[in-house]
Amino acid sequence: MRAVIVAIGVAFLISLFCTPIAIKVFTRLKAGQPIRAEGPIMHQGKKGTPTMGGVVFILATVIAYVAGHLALTTLPDAQIAQVEPTITALVLLGLMVFSGAVGFIDDFLKVRKRHSGGLNKRGKLAGQILVGAVFGVVALYFPSSMTDVSGNATNTETVGSTTLSFIRDIPTLEIGKIGAVIVIIMVVMAATNGVNLTDGLDGLATGASVMVLAAYALIAFWQYRHWCADPNYPAGEYCYTVRDPLEIALIAGAAAGACVGFLWWNTSPARIFMGDTGALGLGGLIAGMAMSTRTILLLPILGGLFVIVTMSVVIQIISFRTTGKRVFRMSPLQHHFELAGWSEVNIVVRFWIIAGIGVAIALGLFYSEFLAAVS
User: Fold this and answer.
1) Residue 80's pLDDT is what?
2) Are 51 and 30 within 8 A, CB to CB?
3) Per DSSP, what are the bridge partners of residue 334?
4) CA distance 218 to 4
5) How far is Cα 105 from Cα 21, in angstroms, rounded to an integer?
6) CA-CA distance, 336 to 357, in Å (whole number)?
7) φ/ψ (deg, to 5) at 50
8) What is the DSSP letter of 244?
9) CB of 363 within 8 A of CB of 299?
10) What is the rounded distance in angstroms from the CA atom of residue 280 to the CA atom of residue 123?
């Protein structure tokens, strides 16, 4: 727990104090956010606000991960099964950094062209598929090599699983390694686009992501406390067959802390936007969390707000193309309510409540499964 707390604190402080520096740097570089002409008229006042702020909390998460590992070295030997960096960290941080890199390219092109159209849809899609495929392969083809004092293997799990999962792996839903990589790609695409579509109002995507990442930190730490590979865990007790759950908790906590620090400057009126850099980076990390904690089918509930916003866009497109009529005044959904007369702050707070409800339901399902099993 100490390492997780250290990582959260370090990430929060770095993000809190470095974001103003980023604001000055991006302002000096004239990296202002172009605003869509067809968007809500009230957004035109945000034109020129620095973007690409996601760089700050992505770097803060990586640095905090290192700090968390330094904290691990001060713990008794019985509690430091994961002192060395792992493949799990490589996959999770890799998904965050490289998904963020795709978003950075998009943001850079927008700023350079002074137009809201950055990387084209095919380019962005190709980047998401490539990132998901590369780290999906790493997640499926590199098992753990943890051993006990006698040299016997205690954990040979991979980061990802060849079966679909809800609260844990579902043995009857075996899909094989190739199928699992395809599923990982789909989850990366869904999560990155979900967070990206939810972004657009000051603090909305950041606050919702904090809730989801905090939930994954709790889930992963619970799995660590009831971990099948822990040599000190009572044999025969109910446990979780995952790889490196403490790593997952540490990274999720660090990312949540970094987002809270960023949110200080991103709330209405935002002084800096996360941009596609931050939105895609967070989406990639959230996808990795679902994969590594074996809760892929729980993600649509945990990230319920992202699903609702994404579905509003899908419904709008299908309706317009088939009937020529729009279901919403504008999509994504948050802009519909803007045009309906809701204030930006009201929309953000109410959407946060929806996000919190999804997180609460998902955590309830996760914990109730444990209670049902041990009883």
Assistant:
1) 44
2) no
3) none
4) 10
5) 21
6) 21
7) -55, 140
8) -
9) no
10) 14
Identity at 84, one-letter amino acid code: E
In contact, 208 and 304? CB cutoff 8 Å? no
Q: What is the mean pLDDT of each run of 10 residues along the chain (375 residues)?
A: 92 96 90 67 73 95 92 58 78 97 92 76 93 96 67 73 94 94 97 94 95 98 91 81 93 97 93 94 98 97 97 95 92 92 94 98 95 84
In the chain, % helix, strand, coil (3-state, to 5) comes to 65, 5, 30
Q: Exposed (0-12), middle (13-18) or buried (19+): which is 253, by Cβ within 10 Å?
A: buried
CB atoms within 10 A of CB 106: 24
Q: Which of 335, 360, 329, 332 is nearest to 347 (CA)?
A: 335
Degrees (nearest 5) of the Cα angle 291, 3, 1?
A: 80
Peptide bond before 171: cis, by omega within 30 degrees of 0?
A: no
pTM for the whole thing?
0.93
Torsion on CA atoms 352, 363, 60, 346, rounded to nearest 10: 0
Closest CA to 370 of 159, 249, 225, 232: 225
Number of Cβ within 10 Å of residue 128's Cβ equals 26
**What φ, ψ does residue 153 adopt, rounded to 5°?**
-65, 130
Q: Over the stretch 309-356, which tens digit does the pLDDT of each residue have? A: 999 999 999 999 999 999 999 989 999 999 999 999 999 999 999 999
Closest CA to 123 of 103, 137, 108: 103
CB 33 within 8 A of CB 46: yes
The number of residues making up the chain comes to: 375
Residue 48: what pLDDT? 76
Helix residue spans in 267-332 (DSSP H): 275-292, 299-302, 304-323
> Is the bond into 269 cis (omega within 30 degrees of 0)?
yes
